[in-house]
Amino acid sequence: MLTEMAIFIFLALVVVASAMAMLLSRNAVYAALFLAMNFVTVALLYLILGAPFIALVQVTVYAGSIMVLFLFVIMMLGAERLPGGEPLRGQRVLAILLGCVLLVEMGLIFALRSGLLQIQMPAVVFSEPVDLGELLFTRYQLLFLVTSVILLAATVGAILLTRGDKVSLRDLLQRKE
Amino acid sequence: MNATLVIEWVVKSLVIILVLTGGFAYTTLYERKVLARMQVRRGPNRAGPLGILQPVADGIKLIFKEELTPHNADKFIFTVAPVITVVPALVITAVVPWGREISLFGRTFTLYLSNVNVAVLYILSVTSISVYGITLAGWSSNNKYATLGGVRATAQMISYELALGCAYIGPILIVGSMSLVDIVEAQAGVWFIFLQPVAFLVYFLASLAEVNRAPFDMPEAEQELTAGYHTEYSGMKFALFFMAEYIKMIAVAMIGVSLFLGGYLGPGIDRFPILGPVYLFIKVAVWLFVIIWVRATLPRIRYDRLMALGWKVMFPLALLSVMITALVLLFVES
Amino acid sequence: MLSDWLYVGIFLVIATFLPFVAITLAGILGPKKPNRLKSTIYECGIETVGETWVQFRAQYYIFALVFVVFDVETVLLYPWAVAYNQLGLFAVAEAVLFVLILFAALVYAWRKGALRWF
């Protein structure tokens, strides 16, 4: 129990530190890397909670594909070096203020509803992928199908937004001929 | 959890890493010899009998080379990139079983490092992490060709990852487990290459693209990209990229053998469990031979065709194979 | 179960150790005689012109975007494949529908030319 707690505290510190480093780094590629580190550490937290499937999905989808997308965006825009200073005046002061408000809110919730601190591990653990699959296709089958529709909508939206009515290189070449 | 158990696993890890690095050294020699024979040459034959000391000589040479770092490179990422390319290549083999149990010194050892119940997904996620090293190496070199090579490699690897991910599903459907030990044991009767020929073909081709081997070695196409993402690397750091590529080849062969070719199974395995690693070794050697043969035979594919092949042929084919497998299983059961 | 992951962890630590040792060893043993010419970038052999970190083609980004969608799909098929023997006919039909909807997405991307390199 004690070792688990120690591992948890260490991982939690890494999660928070990498999130802070991601916000503070001046180079966008470093920021993306810190975010990837954050995702992987969160996956390790899932792992010690006994949910290896979710942990690996977190690594595959977030660290493996969404972060690659971010890296491509950064490289595509040539935006590695972020400009110093504040784009919006007074932004920093406001951000610190709002951050403090959020912190106080969270503290209040933890203090007032102390039931949150006594969360027990669920009696049924869905660490076996078989159980997870059965659950996904019995109780949550409708949500599963909704996911596919959302993914379809995401594809259509992404292509419409990025492609637009731009001419492709092939069209240009054909026009020249 | 006691100390002897931890020591056992440290020793196992060390053995696997030593076998993989030794395997890397001799795969380079194997490749040079096979390529030479296919081109009616002799290949390296000066260092030791039949050239078997050649990898040792290469290793010593690379250790004593001066390492250069371009002055306008991103120094930190430039140094770390080789490390984060090698580590996933090694770590991916943690879930591949080498054999059953053997008794030695009055104790029983399992001949695998770890039998996790999500092994196949673990392989997929480590693969998806392994694109970072190459992208970052290209980007941090501050070299246009290297950057382009790195980005190309990433786009290629993620495109073929989909086909690869779908090719894994066929064996999982048949066995009903993601553990590689279960998948290998389920092939005691018939190897999955006969039940899943399409998935096997997709896996073989997609894995070539995944480890950037010919004919999919676009990221290091020397005619257009100098040497791709490792143009600026020299000495040990270059050797690490080289090592990662060959260890990935071995890992891909080990995973493919376990999924489709019966892994460590073979005649007499029930009576002599020690034969398990031997069978695995033979099958991996054959798989590597085919990879080298493909390199000697096929020219490189143009980049747009490569992407089209991944998205428009391999991925739909793999999905179709999964659906057909599911339907056939349904009919067999009822 | 968790102990199996511990073994993977041990392996990861030792595997990380290897490249670090290799780089350090080469750093100690290798010669170090830097000069200005050696630290210039090689690029392709002639002197380099212009900035390296410039804008890239948008096509890479579109591929990555479509990839994210289908990566989620592939990962969601894994629990289905594992539990397939326990599931009934209905779940099979559901998975077929799921794949068909996403196949429509692939066809859409294909028709719109998002999968075309140029």
Radius of gyration of chain A: 22 Å
N-to-C SSE string of chain B, H for helix and E for strand: HHHEEHHHHHHHHHH
Which stretches of chain A of 5+ consecutive residues score pLDDT under 50? none
Secondary structure class of chain A reads mainly alpha
Structural class of chain B: mainly alpha
Average per-residue pLDDT of chain B, rounded, comes to 84
Order of helices and strands of chain A: HHHHHHH
Largest sheet of chain B: 2 strands, antiparallel
How far apart, in Å, are the first and last alpha carbons of chain B?
A: 46 Å
Q: What share of the residues of chain B lie within helices?
A: 55-70%
Regions with little confidence, pLDDT below 50 for 5+ residues of chain B: none
Strand line-up of the largest beta sheet of chain B: 1-2
User: So how many helices of chain B?
Assistant: 13
Name some characteristics of this structure:
heterotrimer, A: 177 residues, mainly alpha, 7 helices, globular, C: 118 residues, Methane Monooxygenase Hydroxylase, Chain G, domain 1, 0% strand, flat
Q: Please, could you describe this protein's structure?
A:
The complex is a heterotrimer of chains A (177), B (334) and C (118). Chain A is mainly α and 177 residues long. Chain A contains 7 helices and no strands. In chain A, helix 1 (2-24) runs antiparallel to helix 2 (28-48), helix 2 runs antiparallel to helix 3 and helix 5 crosses helix 6 (141-163). The termini of chain A are far apart. The model of chain A has no long low-confidence stretch (mean pLDDT 79). Chain B has one domain (72-333). Chain B is built from 13 helices and 2 strands, in the order H-H-H-E-E-H-H-H-H-H-H-H-H-H-H. Chain B has helices at 3-38, 54-63, 75-91, 119-129, 131-140, 144-175, 180-185, 192-195, 197-210, 222-225, 235-260, 275-297, 303-333; strands spanning 101-104, 107-110. Chain B has a two-stranded antiparallel sheet. In chain B, helix 1 (3-38) crosses helix 11 (235-260). The mean pLDDT of chain B is 84. Helices cover 64% and strands 0% of the residues of chain C. Chain C has helices at 2-29, 58-82, 89-111. Chain C is flat and about 70 Å long.
Summarize the structure.
The complex is a heterotrimer of chains A (177), B (334) and C (118). Chain A is 75% helix and 0% strand.
